[in-house]
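Cross-check.
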Amino acid sequence: RFISCVYMCQISSIRLKSWLIGISESLFTWTRTEMIRSCRAYICTKRLIRLNRLSLRRVAFPERKIVNKHHETK
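Predicted model, tokenized:
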């Protein structure tokens, strides 16, 4: 009885350990993928904002460029 109880406890502890390890690994991989995703999204939004700013500048100040060109020709 005692030996079988110890054996069962050992098995349960091993199962628990493997289960915990599996959970921690899955959590780690999930958090890593989520972090990568969020980083990519952040970079993409940054690029989009930058592009939008550039396009806004181009739209907002086309006259200035023309004026500058006229000055250069003079």
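The mean pLDDT is 80. The helical segments are 2-60, 62-73. Passed to J.P. for a second look.
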